[in-house]
Amino acid sequence: MNTRATPAVGYRIGSLLADFQPDFEFSAPLPLPVEEFEERLRRIRRQAVEAGHDAIIVHTGSVGWFHTSNAYLRYICDWMREGVLIVPTDSDKPLTLLSFFTQSVLLPPGGEPLLVDEIWQIGPIGREYADRPGDSVIKTAEKCAEILAYLGLRHAQIGQIGDRTSLTFWAALNALMPKCKFVADNPILDRLQKVRSPGEVAMFRAAAQLASIGTQAAYHVAKPGVTDHEIFAAFTMAQMAFGGETGDGYQIGINEFGTHCGKPYGHVVRPGDLINLYISNVTWRGYTAQTARMIAVGEITAHQEDVLAACTEGVKRAEKLIKPGALMRDINNAAFEPMIARGMLTSPEARTMPYNWAPEEDGSARLIPRQYVKDIDWEAQGRKLMHVYPATYGPHNPNLGHSIGMAGGQNSFNISSHNYDRLEEGMIFVLHAQWLEPLAAGCNIGDCYVVTADGFENLSRHTPLETHRIDTGA
C-alpha cells in the first residue's frame, strides 16, 4: 500500500494556537427555563385543538454520526437523541417518550427530557446486532399503538410530525391503527419557530459568538504552508473549547480561483489562494448560527477583487433595510444591485437568475463539464480532478439568505425576490451574498441578524464582513 507524509509534518496545531485569544468576551447563556418549554407545549396543544387532532406524534430519527434527523424533540422537550413523543391534546394527560431504538451509543443521553412523564426504552434489536428476532421500527410502532389505545385513542385523529426517516414508522403505525385518521402536520411546530423569544435570541447570539471565535482562530493560523486541515482544526478547537456542540457543521474551501465550498482534503495554502469559511452550523445548546467569511492570501486578480467587493457591498446594502415591517423581497433585491451594476446579473428575480446548482433552463439535468483541473495537493494523493465544479456561474443559490433555527431544523423562510412577507421583531436569519465563476472568481460572505424593535442586531459583528487579508511579503 502506497503512503505519503502529509504536507504538515508533525503535529503543530497546538503551537499555531498557543497565543490565540478572541478579542471579545464570550457570553454563555444557561439552558432555557422549564417555563419556556411549558409555554411551547401550551401553544402546540392549542394548535392541535384548532386542527382537530386528539394527539400529536413527533418522530425524530437518526442520520448517523450521532446526529438526529430533525430538531423537533429538542424544541419540545430538550431531548437530544432519537425518539417518538406522544402528545395528547388534553392538557391533563402526560407526555410519553419512546426512545433508544437506534445503535447510537450516547450513554447517558445528553440531558433530561422536560415535561415527559414516562420514557420507554425500545432497544435496537435484530439478528445480526442482538441475535434476537424483530425490527426496532416495528417495535416502536407497536408500543406507540399500545399507548394510544391506553389513552382511548383507537378511533382518533392524530397529527404526525417528522421527516423522511419517519416513513417506515408511520406506515407501521397506520397499519396497526387502521381506525385512526393520521394527518401530516409539521407546520404546527414550524410556525412556532418563525419568531424567537428573548431567551432563544440569547442562544443564537452565543452560537454566533462561537462562530466569531472560530473565525478569529482561523485567521490566527492561516498563512502559506498551513493546510486546510489545520485551519479547520483551529476553528473547531477554538469554538468547541468555549462550548460548541459539534465540529462538523461548516465548510472550508481553498483554491486559486475562489470557486470553493467544501471540506478539507489536504490543500496547502499558497500565495494567491482564496479561502472561504462557510459557517453553516455552529451550535450552542441546539441553536445554530451562520456566517461566511473570505480570506485572501497575498495578491489576487482584479476580477476576484471586484467579485469580493460586489458581494460585500451587497450584504451592507441589504443590512440597511432590516427593521420590523421591511419587505423581505426588498432586502433580497438590494443585495443584488452591485452585481447588476457590474453586469454580473441582469435581474434579482429568483426565477430568472443563474445559480451554481441550477438545472438547464427547461428544467432538465445539466451535464457537469468534464475537464482536467490541476490540483497538486489532490494529485499528490493519487487522484485527479477531472470535472469543473460548479457547472455554471452565478450565486450558490438564487436568493440572499434564509432563517436559521435549531440544528437539523428546516428553514421557515427565505430572503428571496418572491417572498413578500415582512420582517417581525424576533426573526433571525443569515444574509450571505455569493458568487462563483468556475476557474475564475468566487465569494461567499455574510452575517447573522436578529430583528429588534427598532432595527437589527448583527450577531456576527465580532469579525468584520470585509475580506481578511494575509500579507505574504510578495
UniProtKB/TrEMBL annotation:
Keyword Zinc: no
InterPro entries referenced in this protein's UniProt entry, alphabetically: Creatin/AminoP/Spt16_N, Creatinase/aminopeptidase-like, Pept_M24, Peptidase_M24B
Peptidase M24 domain ranges (all copies): 203-453
Gene3D superfamilies in the record: Creatinase/methionine aminopeptidase superfamily (3.90.230.10), Creatinase/prolidase N-terminal domain (3.40.350.10)
GO molecular function, one term: aminopeptidase activity
Keyword list, A-Z: Aminopeptidase, Hydrolase, Protease
Keyword Protease carried by entry: yes
Cross-referenced PANTHER family: AMINOPEPTIDASE (PTHR46112), XAA-PRO AMINOPEPTIDASE P-RELATED (PTHR46112:SF2)
Protein name as annotated: Aminopeptidase P family protein
